[in-house]
Amino acid sequence: KSKELGRNMYQLFDQSMSKRNYQSFILERDLRKAIMNDEFVAYFQPRVNALTGKVTSAEALIRWNHPQVGLVSPGDFIPLAEESGLIIPMGKWMKRRVCEQLVAWREAGIPLVPISVNISSQRFLQKDFAKDIRALLEEYQLEGKYLEIEITENSIMKNEETVTKTLEELKELGVKIYIDDFGTGYSSFNYLKTFQLDGVKIDRAFIQNISSESENASITTAMIKMAHHLKLEVVAEGVETKQELDYLVEQNCLQIQGYYFGRPCPIEEFEEKYLLTV
Ligand code: C2E
Ligand code: MG
Ligand code: MG
Ligand code: MG
């Protein structure tokens, strides 16, 4: 660790260092501190069944409560966290935070909804990923159905053997797997029949301003049809308007996530708004 820091210090004083490098040096240093000082916060965003209006699950989304800057969005630190490997301890923190919350709800007698966690491809591709999830569920005495996992297409395209094994183990545990940002990757659709997946989350880019005449509508409709044929669940992400919602319901895509039903919010707020209202 100190050796590494020394190297970074050297870089810092290197005349050729650009401003951008300097900024990412500061950011990485602060991120390391954030992990030690427990500066991360989990926000939950509801996923709603469009027909019943019921909250069926939630996605856990990380925020960084920076001591000087305040709340920082993942878009501003995930890329560097990926690059520096800090995404691994961050992910570990998030999985524990989610399990802790599920246990707290259970102990309070609040009916649980599954919570979905984003997993970096770095972590997902490590051979011990599923084993780690198994140990976590055991430690917290949680059923696998309460934990869901979101991975991106590029997570699944790398090492077929490892991915197959990991997915099998997760299936055994009852942990569902969703492909996040579906439709935005460079991959072919071949993986959809190769691997045992539970569902896809259609990226917000396709949902925006959707109406029956738009190009997005044709693409989304095709994705929904394909998913249903493959017996995959379909979730639409980033649904903001009634118009978008109506179009999706018409196409029989009933699992909805987006500002229309609720923004990501602190867990206490999520609990009050969505779990305690009978
Ligand atoms: P994602 O997994 O695709 O999460 C959905 C993003 O869309 C979230 O952004 C959410 O706040 C935003 N969103 C949801 N509904 C709407 C909507 O109706 N309109 C608009 N404009 N946006 C909406 P967020 O929270 O900023 O997270 C961004 C990305 O950061 C996530 O995209 C995910 O890839 C990553 N991320 C977040 N938390 C974690 C984490 O704990 N671990 C990892 N590895 N990645 C994470
Ligand atoms: Mg996600
Ligand atoms: Mg997404
Ligand atoms: Mg994403």
Description:
- The structure is a single chain.
- Helix 6 runs parallel beside helix 8 (160-173).
- Strand 6, helix 9 (191-194) and strand 7 form a beta-alpha-beta unit.
- The model has no long low-confidence stretch (mean pLDDT 92).
- This protein is α/β, with parallel strands linked by helices.
- Helices cover 48% and strands 20% of the residues.
- The chain is globular.
- The protein starts with a helix and ends with a helix.
- The chain contains 13 helices and ten strands.
- Residues 59, 118, 150, 180 line the site of one magnesium ion (MG).
- One of its GO terms (biological process) is regulation of DNA-templated transcription.
- Residues 24-278 form the EAL domain.
- This is EAL domain-containing protein.
Uncertain regions spanning at least 5 consecutive residues: none
Q: Care to count the β-strands? A: 10
SS element count, helices: 13
* Classification by helices and strands: alpha/beta
Which oligomerization state do the chains in this entry correspond to?
single chain
Percent of residues in helices comes to 40-55%
Biggest pleated sheet: 8 strands, mixed, barrel
Bound molecules: ligand C2E, magnesium ion
Rg over CA atoms, rounded to whole Å, is 20 Å
Shape descriptor: globular
- Beta-strand residue percentage: 15-25%
Task: Write the element-wise H/E pattern from the N-terminal end onward.
Answer: HHEEEHHEHHEHHEHEHHEHEEH
Mean pLDDT: 92
Distance between the termini: 51 Å
Output the strand order for the largest sheet.
1-2-4-5-6-7-8-9
